[in-house]
Amino acid sequence: SWCCCFLAPLGTLLASSSLDNLLVLTVATKETEGFRRFKRSAQFFNYKIQALGLGEDWNVEKGTSAGGGQKVRLLKKALEKHADKEDLVILFTDSYDVLFASGPRELLKKFRQARSQVVFSAEELIYPDRRLEAKYPVVSDGKRFLGSGGFIGYAPNLSKLVAEWEGQDSDSDQLFYTKIFLDPEKREQINITLDHRCRIFQNLDGALDEVVLKFEMGHVRARNLAYDTLPVLIHGNGPTKLQLNYLGNYIPRFWTFETGCTVCDEGLRSLKGIGDEALPTVLVGMFIEQPTPFVSLFFQRLLQLHYPRKHMRLFIHNHEQHHKAQVEEFLAEHGSEYQSVKLVGPEVRMANADARNMGADLCRQDRSCTYYFSVDADVALTEPNSLRLLIQQNKNVIAPLMTRHGRLWSNFWGALSADGYYARSEDYVDIVQGRRIGVWNVPYISNIYLIKGSALRGELQSPDLFHHSKLDPDMAFCANVRQQDVFMFLTNRHTLGHLLSLDSYRTTHLHNDLWEVFSNPEDWKEKYIHQNYTKALAGKLVETPCPDVYWFPIFTEAACDELVEEMEHFGQWSLGDNKVGTLMPGLGPQGGHLSISIGFEREWHKFLLEYIAPMTEKLYPGYYTRAQFDLAFVVRYKPDEQPSLMPHHDASTFTINIALNRVGVDYEGGGCRFLRYNCSIRAPRKGWTLMHPGRLTHYHEGLPTTRGTRYIAVSFVDP
Ligand SMILES: *[C@@H]1O[C@H](CO)[C@@H](O)[C@H](O)[C@H]1NC(C)=O
Ligand SMILES: *[C@@H]1O[C@H](CO)[C@@H](O)[C@H](O)[C@H]1NC(C)=O
Ligand SMILES: *[C@@H]1O[C@H](CO)[C@@H](O)[C@H](O)[C@H]1NC(C)=O
Ligand SMILES: *[C@@H]1O[C@H](CO)[C@@H](O)[C@H](O)[C@H]1NC(C)=O
């Protein structure tokens, strides 16, 4: 269920006639996300706002420093009909980079306390003409210079203020107001003062060190520490847009640590009641840019997504020869189930950024592409509802939080350093660890994100989204999105998966995933440990085919197959050392020692510790194993090579014996007989292990394999 934070807007309780005499005017030529944020914050506190200029062209080149004259022209026009309203207070403010931190009552109170007819926001930095500094009145405390991003005043006085405007749209509004303010006569006549101590207006440029978030009694305010004030409007002017985005994650929302709820979901997209047929088309872009473990699981998870494949298109960039077979196998098996498929393989030698541009552009150029879902191969997307959950958030760009197993490493940054690289925000750890839950406006996301097709055809229409100066593609993408003033959101409301660790992945073996038990234990378990192992651990499904011989599921098909293939690939079936000969008469030349041969000793020990030891302790109460072993090997039985094993004791406290292939399919015969009990297990199950004591009581033999080849993995534990 959605947590709801828009409880009672505080303003509704305070409506009074004086509040009706307040009007908020702003200029917004486009409904940017910043503008929508401004409107939401205004609605939260019950401000009446009127936007001027919507739909008009913004008559200044983006990025040029001058401009703003258009705002004065529009204000002058709007004030014509209010010029005589002596009681009407008008707040004029920017909106793309502004939000309200408090309601109209507090605003009006502070305005009246200022004892001036017109109050302008104040700035630390003088702009745009530094030569005017000497003309500014000196202030003993507070900010000295006028900022035109926000001012408040009585309608007649404001009309007077803008009456003499005759400039161009591209002229500086700030310079215009500054010149009036610096003319002592006009200043007095119109009665203008500045909000030196940020009681009403907080411009963040030059003041970042002064502003902190105060969490108190379920509310959040931005506090100015320098003047000990609680500003009503926060303005992320100049280069402080990102800091405003950060504050906007908290302000003006109702926040309690108890519920951990910071989300005020506006415009959630409901998919309930939408039949599968009506779900929007999603282009899934998949990127294998480096050797990556568990690519087979990556595709399996794609198949498990709870979303109709006929509404999904696939774009795959595989940069790695190493994964070519896996990708092609997946497409051969399932490609036709999707609406369309495009593969760019390693032979094309396409660069990362170019491939990402190509994927995004496939969606952009196709009007029926409603979403572009970009997922890198090192993302383990384990939640089948992922796509639906992300679509529901209804954002232009949104990423689910993904972290590396048990680490602070994640796919987002909470802040940017001055040079545009990683910086840790104050809330980073709390978000990663789920102590603060919500949908967060952040400056950097990577690995997995959903972009609206409409955004790709709108603000993000540049076909080269993944290049930006010399930045890597991930950073280039974020820099370009930020530049277009599109917000990037991160949600940690649901756990949708995790990131793989690629650090120690090697491609020297046939099945390299087997070696990933340390780096990516969750995925290793998912791929290799039998689905019913957990049940066995809970005491279900464990069978006792012979006295003190336990039998339970441990390996998946993949584990069995890969282990056998790995051994055959290695190809050196050996006698082993003398010790084997003496202790296990009859073993013969077919025992391939994992420790000697394929370099799997550490991993095998980890497996025994993680998955066998807990079973041992359960089934043989009072016995604690450290899962030590000298011998662990795969035995190959063939009628014409070595069909059976003579009766013997094992050099172990207990032995595990895992069947790696299927009787009746891969071989006939085989099995294990315990002589003392005259008890045989004749139909070993693939992926199941026998576990029995090694010495004394469990003298046993390997029954003859009569056709095909039989493989078992054996370990003598605690010799
Ligand atoms: C503005 O404020 C002053 C008070 O200082 C007042 O005398 C004046 O008439 C007001 N109106 C205009 C249009 O300036
Ligand atoms: C504005 O008017 C008030 C009286 O209404 C006066 O006390 C104050 O000094 C005036 N301020 C300016 C800047 O003229
Ligand atoms: C797991 O056990 C259930 C019955 O408890 C069975 O239906 C299912 O096939 C088993 N899974 C596998 C992979 O053998
Ligand atoms: C062992 O059991 C089999 C039947 O399972 C039986 O035919 C045989 O006689 C038994 N052998 C001994 C020595 O008890």
Structural features, described:
The chain has 20 helices and 38 strands. The chain is an alpha+beta fold. The chain has three domains: 246 residues, Spore Coat Polysaccharide Biosynthesis Protein SpsA, Chain A (Alpha-Beta Complex); 217 residues, Spore Coat Polysaccharide Biosynthesis Protein SpsA, Chain A, CATH 3.90.550.10; 207 residues, Jelly Rolls (Sandwich). An eight-stranded mixed β-sheet has the order 14-13-12-15-23-17-24-21, with helices on both faces. It has a seven-stranded antiparallel β-sheet with strand order 26-27-35-31-38-29-28, covered by helices on one side. The chain has a six-stranded mixed β-sheet with strand order 2-1-3-6-5-7, sandwiched between helices. β12, α9 and β13 form a beta-alpha-beta unit. α3 packs across α5 and α9 runs parallel beside α10. The protein starts with 16 loop residues before the first helix and ends with a strand. Bound molecules: 2-acetamido-2-deoxy-beta-D-glucopyranose (4 copies). The site of one 2-acetamido-2-deoxy-beta-D-glucopyranose (NAG) has 2 residues, from loops.
Which characteristics define this entry?
disordered N terminus; Jelly Rolls; iron ion binding; 719 residues; 3 domains; Spore Coat Polysaccharide Biosynthesis Protein SpsA, Chain A; binds 2-acetamido-2-deoxy-beta-D-glucopyranose; seven-stranded antiparallel sheet; alpha+beta
